[in-house]
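Support case: zinc ion complex. Customer-provided input:
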Amino acid sequence: MIDTKVNIATGKLTGGGVVNSRRTIGDLKNVFLHEAVRAAMDPGTVVYEVQSHEAVPQGTPGGLFFGTSNVMPGQVGGEYFMTKGHYHARRECAEYYWCIEGTGALILMDEKGKCWYEPMAPGTLHYIPGYVAHRLANTGNTPLRVGACWPSDAGHDYASISESGFTARLMNVEGKPTLVPCGKE
Ligand code: S6P
Ligand code: ZN
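Agent response - structure generated as follows:
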């Protein structure tokens, strides 16, 4: 733990206990509204990378994880590059996000399907309550870097999102991020 460092300008984590993951266009089948547009894109294009520092095993009650998400600039058929999004498997678990660099949005949805978003810019702090699904979108032209801290037993529930999706999509409408109510194609 003591040799683990966080670059406070970029959120980049180095040293022990750091777990890295990456999602490309090819990994994100059926995530974006316009699946046919995604399928025609270069599958190797990186959409986002996540680093996390896991000081205790996943599932440990009472522990915390700390991480940085980097969402690249880009769009799929007018929908901004974004994370898959999830509820926590333990739905009551909350999370903090804070924006380090870039411009974007934290898209939120409660269990009744009400969807809203909070704009992100360097220094914005975001409390995600329990029972609320969350995803990041990059609405700018540079990487969106976001720090996060969440309970080590929160887990991820991606299945609920892949079954019914978010009820609204953050789209580029005449150059402006606009939350558009919709389902999938
Ligand atoms: C974990 C936290 C983030 C996300 C990351 C990627 O609870 O919310 O670290 O895992 O932003 O998003 P996703 O939806 O692919 O896990
Ligand atoms: Zn989360």
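The longest strand covers residues 46-54.

Case will auto-close in a few days if no follow-up is received.
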